[in-house]
């Protein structure tokens, strides 16, 4: 569904499946849970890297 444009561009065969309500709900829940988790992880890594850089600057 997301890559259909590129699949067509490079001549891949595409099967069109109709999404049902449970598929849509699953995708929405994955986004609602997954995106905040990913954002938290990015902020943690940014904080850790920033701390490491400050420690290197102090030495």
In short:
The protein is mainly alpha-helical and 59 residues long. It has 2 helices and no strands.
What are the defining features of this structure?
single chain, 59 residues, mainly alpha, 2 helices, elongated
Tell me the fraction of residues in β-strands, as a range.
under 5%
Which structural class fits the helix and strand makeup? mainly alpha
Shape: elongated
Major sheet characteristics: none
As a whole number of angstroms, the C-alpha radius of gyration is 20 Å
Percent helix range: over 70%
Helix-strand string: HH
The number of helices is 2
Q: Ends: how far apart? A: 51 Å
**Number of self-contained structural domains:** 1
Give unreliable regions as ranges: none
The whole-number mean of residue pLDDT values reads 88
Total number of beta strands: 0
Transmembrane segments: 16-35
Keywords: Membrane, Transmembrane, Transmembrane helix
């Amino acid at each position: 569904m997301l890559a259909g444009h590129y699949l067509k561009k490079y001549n891949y065969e595409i099967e069109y499946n109709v999404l049902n309500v449970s598929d849509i709900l699953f995708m929405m829940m994955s986004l609602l849970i997954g995106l905040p988790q990913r954002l938290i992880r990015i902020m943690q890594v940014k904080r850790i890297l920033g701390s490491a850089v400050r420690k290197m600057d102090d030495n």
